[in-house]
Specification:
The complex is a heterodimer of chains A (446) and B (557). Chain A is of the alpha+beta class and 446 residues long. Chain A has twelve helices and 14 strands. Among the domains of chain A are: 85 residues, no CATH class; 118 residues, Cupredoxins -  blue copper proteins (Immunoglobulin-like, Sandwich); 78 residues, Cytochrome c-like domain (Cytochrome Bc1 Complex, Chain D, domain 2, Orthogonal Bundle), CATH 1.10.760. With 557 residues, chain B is mostly helical. The chains are: A alpha+beta (446), B mainly alpha (557).
Amino acid sequence: MFRNLITILVFTVATLVATSVTTAQPGDTGTAEAPTAAAPTIVKQPVVDPVAPTGADPAGTEAAIAAPAAAEAAAPAAEEPASAKAEAPKDAAAPKDATAPKDASKEGQAVVKEDEYPFTDLTPDSYWMPAKAAGNTTEHVDWMFYAILGLSVFCFFAITVAVVYLTWRYRHRPGHRAEPSTAHDNVLEVVWTVIPSIICVFIFIGGWKGYLNMTTAPGDALEIQTVGQKWNWTFTYSKGLETIQRPELHVPVNRPVKLNMRSEDVLHSFYLPSMRVKQDVIPNRYSYIWFEADTPGVYKVYCAEYCGDAHSDMKTKVVVHERGGYEKWLNDEYEKDQVDCREFEGQERQDCYIGQGQKIYEAKGCKQCHSLDGSSGTGPTFQGMWGQTRNFTDGSSGTVDENYVRESVLDPMAKIRSGFSPVMPTFKGKLKDKDIDALNNWMKAL
Amino acid sequence: MSSEAATADSVQEPSYIDVKSGFWSWFVTIDHKRIGVMYLIAILTAFLLGGFFALMIRAELLLPGSQLVTAATFNKLFTVHGAIMVFLVIIPGIPAALGNFVVPILLGAPDVAFPRLNLASFYLYLSGALLLILSLFLGGVDTGWTFYTPYSTTTDTAVVPAVAGAFLLGFSSIFTGLNMVVTIHKFKPKGMGWFKMPLSLWGIYATAVIQVLATPVLGLTLLLLFVERIVGIGIFDPALGGDPVLFQHFFWFYSHPAVYIMILPAMAVMSELITVFAKKHIFGYSFIAYSSIGLALLSFLVWGHHMFVSGQSTLANMVFSALTFSVAIPSAIKVFNWIATLYKADIHLDSPMIWALMFILLFAIGGLTGIFLGTLNVDVHLHDTYFVVSHFHYVMMGSALIAFFGALHYWWPKMTGKMYAEKPAVIMALMVFFSFNLTFLPQFVMGARGMPRRYFDYDPRFELMHQLSSLGAFIMGVTLFCIIMNLLISLKTGKKAPANPWGGTTLEWQTSSPPPLYNFPVGQPIPLPELYEYDNLVKDEVNGGWHYKKDDAATEA
């Protein structure tokens, strides 16, 4: 009967081997030159997908028509062009732009659009983890992951060997009886309680240190307002006092980026596997996430908190620009918005240019009490207020940030600045969440 | 007690099955054994239904894009799969079905402390189950089994009947827990102190304590959700000034202890099986007993690890992460104790023991992968991915449900008086082990690579791993169905079970199979053999079954 146990072990090993062999990276054999060789510097290709291309598929023919050379590269590229990661992303990844025409029902409003930024993170660079694009988070997350993986594999192997060996060694056969042995041993039991405890303490500390790094954004981070709604993302970029909005995330390389996030409806979760960061996006408060991308490229963004029918389509991309590329992109996009604004006349044209924050400040009466020049009125001035620590009349203190402003607007009595009277009316119902977003964006620049 | 005496007793008194017959004799029974059997039938039915939904999910995920169903249907499928498996199968599996049957017998008692409450608990379970099923016919629920707000307060699917169903199921669980606590406290026979109790009683006792203390919170939470949806009181809905994250705190304050409602009895029963089939005293009895209680208490303090990326404060995350690691220790102790029990033992590889050994290995994987998720920075990456899906399937299915099947094979002869076909049982148990790992090992890899959970459509690079996973699930589905069939067939064709087919030292094996109405022959003293001492047990090679050597009969009572 002990053969059964050997069979168990064989099955386990076979399953592990099967998964690792079949999912291993066949790209090592013969596709290495495909991306660069096949890719002319195509940066614009028509793709069919309202949200984002999902990767190469031999069945997808659009790209083959647009870029014939890409066709042969498409199939292997789906699995693993190991070399792609190191290439200049925009160019190298062009052939992988072939999009699988997916289920028609989910693509009701699919339109052909220009895709300027095809993905570069189609393939993981290791068996276990996705491609890395942000040293500050990936280093310690991956290190801890592999450390625990090593420990787990060792422990599991030891447990399996112990169970299989003991079962075989002490299996029942004619004439065999259990030998007398102790039923408890305090020293042994204390040892195997204390050793795992010590290991756990080290793992906890490792995880905690990394996590502190992940949650503490540097003060000079580039801030981008992020809104999740069913089922897409909106990113608001500040340019001086004005803003532009785009459905894709653009960030500069080697600069900390902080996303201030909120949801328009239900819970979502902003998940960027290549940076190893994730944060739930909540309707009634701001949450934030930060990362510092160190590899230019285009990476996937997923929604990781279930949010309804198109949950799995709620994805977008983050474009990590080369040095100087972000500023150029921001200027170009800003110009585009300016051009678009020329269609409007009069007041509408004004709205198009001027930051919403300033408009709300003027229209909703904030300016009656809050100055922009540093002088105190009925309420404190907005100038230089952002990020400062303020004392409140109840003895507590706090930092002026998104959640503080939101609270002050909706529930002004919650925290009263020392030296001021509790007289501000609530703006609950008068200001919507997107107005508060605009105020936050604008105040930061004051 | 010798085997002749046992045979003589069973001749004298009819078994609980034969004592009465007809629909009403079951429908209004207050016999804990009949209620246990009714639970078992209901649970296995629910299991087949939940398993069918799981296979639908795996079939849909064979390829990216839409294959069988729409995204909306897919969302309802994983919701109902989760709700059925958690509320209808795993939570009541060992405590309510098997526990109901064996706890009074293990204590030498004629019934549980509150037999009528026990029946009420079963009917609450049935009503809750029917409401859950009803919600399917009213269009289904698409919130996920966690009912997270504000999605659950805003979706237009049948949340209300489903939540009402879960509410009733919660009360069923509380009633059972209450019954078990009182029964174990009050009905211990003379000579059985707390530390002379079989370990399965310790496990069920610890479970019952959690059921009584934690489940009311689920009831309140679901009630609030119910009221929120119907009259809009605005406690969770941010549109009304509520806080959606509050729901997660309430929900996990119950649902994390609920994981221990599932796993503690599983661990306890596995401890029992390992000592019986190893024919050796369990190693470190008191460490195992204390670790059950320790786990039960710690389980109340770690709910926040479900919320590391929910927007909860950094400090709270740190505290919950540290507490989470403390749960790892008692679990590790149990694994070491089980392994130590095998040392110098005499291991009989009957089918329940195969399940028990599988349990040790699968639970090890489930536990070790929990370390990844308890580690703060790694969890940020792995949270809400397939890694988590795979981890909790290793714990809830690979451990709790595997233990349930092991325990079912162990007590089946006692419950029905029939022996099932042993060879198919062993082969199919091994097939479950193989197909289970084939299903869920690829999901660890997918998850670490960034495949989020609850996705209807996925990136083509995950296709192969999804297909391996689906293949494993189909094999496992068919095998589990055959396992249940093998048990059912034994009712017709199985050999008559001896009183003590496995050589157990606990009380249920000292009465006939199946037991008489009041569990032991009325008017005779109940023998209390020394717990986990196997030296005097000998196997009857002719008739099967074990009995005590005659000349030692005097020392048993």
